Amino acid sequence: DIQMTQSPSSRSASVGDRVTLTCQASQDISYYLNWYQHKPGKAPKLLIYDASNLETGVPSRFSGSGSGTDFTFTISSLQPEDVATYYCQQYDSLPPTFGPGTQVEIK
Amino acid sequence: QVQLQESGPGLVKPSGTLSLTCIVSGDSINSKNWWVWVRQPPEKGLEWIGEIYQSGTTNYNPSLKTRVNISVDTSRNQFSLKVTSVTAADTAVYYCVRKRGPRALDYWGPGTLVTVS
Questions:
Q1: From CA B37, how far away is CA B48, in angstroms rounded?
Q2: H or E stretch including A38?
Q3: CA distance A5 to A24
Q4: With an 8 Å Cβ cutoff, are A46 and B47 in contact?
Q5: What's A59's DSSP letter?
Q6: Where are any strands of DSSP class E within chain B?
Q7: Is A44 helix (H, G, I), strand (E, B) or coil?
Q8: Count of CB atoms within 10 A of residue A27's CB?
Q9: Largest alpha-carbon pair distance within chain B?
Q10: Does B53 touch chain A (CB under 8 A)?
Q11: How many CA atoms lie within 13 A of A22 on its CB side?
Q12: Of A43, A52, A9, A3, nearest to A26 (Cα)?
């Protein structure tokens, strides 16, 4: 299985801050990487697909980049409603695997 | 609007079988999408269980393959999950999900907690 790692495990920032999260794959996954937002008690929500494509209806403050083994997810201006855990997920090969998540909080 | 809703027992005895059904609305099971099950044990991350296509073709996580079966009922526009020989490690919130195209999990059910005890 492809192993996904995420850093940091948690991130605390102020409203309006730029927040950058990273995700690394244990082998080359091209651009087959998605990002999800997961709030407690809710279903995960797809934000970014294929590494850098913004899902329809998702605010433009969210963005993604990267290819191969190293990927970045950015919130350009953190909002209170962005408090959540963010997961990356590879879909290059079966089984699809998720990273352990990064918990984002407001300082 | 595509909606998915899981249903099934919230409590299963050890060594028993976990059975869940996902009712899909707003899309046809016969569309060109795959239908997926994902779970999240308490205080842990997300785990992909498996997926099924309208034709009945399935892919399973090797870690669960010997105990998992996913089936589809096109007449009722739903798909189902069975996990046999369950233990406490199978306690989790189970989500049914639509996979758009080859990779994106775009619509998720609200999730249902299944406790093995």
A1: 6
A2: strand A33-38
A3: 5
A4: no
A5: -
A6: 3-7, 11-12, 18-25, 34-40, 47-52, 58-60, 68-73, 78-83, 92-100, 104-108, 112-116
A7: coil
A8: 11
A9: 38
A10: no
A11: 6
A12: A3
Instruction: Establish if A43 touches chain B: CB-CB under 8 angstroms.
Output: yes
A42 and B46 in contact by Cβ < 8 A? Answer: no
Span A8-25, mean pLDDT? 98
Residue B41: CB atoms within 10 A of its CB come to: 14
In the block, tokens 């999730």 appear at B111
Q: Each residue of B77-113: b (16+ CB within 10 Å) or e? A: bbbbbebeebeeebbbbbbbbbbbeebbbbbbbebbe
Residue A80: phi and psi, rounded to 5, are -55, -35
Task: Among B45, B61, B95, select the one facing A43 at the smallest CB separation.
Answer: B95
CB contact, 8 Å: A87 with chain B?
yes
* β-strand pairing of A102-106 with A10-13: parallel
Q: What is the largest CA-CA distance in chain A?
A: 38
pLDDT in tens, B54-105: 889 999 999 999 999 999 999 999 999 999 999 999 999 999 999 998 789 9
Residue B60 tokens, joined: 């399973």
Pairing of strands B112-116, B11-12: parallel
CA count, 13 A, side-chain hemisphere, B14: 4
B47 min Cα distance to partner chain A (Å): 7
Q: Are A43 and B108 in contact (CB under 8 A)?
A: yes
For A27-79, the pLDDT digits (tens) are: 999 999 999 999 998 999 999 999 999 999 999 999 999 999 999 999 999 99
